[in-house]
Amino acid sequence: MIKLNQYEYKEEYTYYMLQALREGDKEVFRKDFLNLHPTDQTEFFLSLDDNRRLRIYSFLHPTEFSEIFSELNPDMQKKIIVELDRKYAIDMLNELPSDDAADFFGLLTHKEADFFLTRMEKDAFL
After folding, report:
1. pLDDT digits over 17-51, tens only?
2. CATH no. of 1-59
3. What is the residue extent of each domain of the chain?
4. DSSP sequence for the chain
5. Residues 6+ positions from 55 with CB-CB distance below 8 Å
6. How far apart are CA 126 and CA 24, in angstroms?
């Protein structure tokens, strides 16, 4: 696992991940990104604009993205959940540790929380 703050070629490593993301090279991006320490994954994710974040969602499995999502501050979580495809969001929320999921649902209106919770329960039984 690579920790970027201890890695001699941090800028170069980041450049190649951005290039793979831009070019749609899913395999290269996943290899480099998933090799990063989770803190660095979150920092990299937060540095991206909206369009690049959308690409990340298509490159990462909901389980993988749930680790990043749980590290985001509450305001960012509310922003990100709107960007996600509903099915992807539900799958990702199913993967969150229960305390992180409870914290997230506490940020939402009753109607918003109910939307996700009802569908999460249905997915769990399918």
Report:
1. 999 999 999 999 999 999 998 889 999 999 999 99
2. 1.25.60.10
3. 1-59, 61-126
4. -B-GGG-TTHHHHHHHHHHHHHHT-HHHHHHHHHTB-HHHHHHHHHTS-HHHHHHHHHHS-HHHHHHHHTTS-HHHHHHHHHHS-HHHHHHHHHHS-HHHHHHHHHHS-HHHHHHHHHHHHHHHH-
5. 21, 24
6. 32
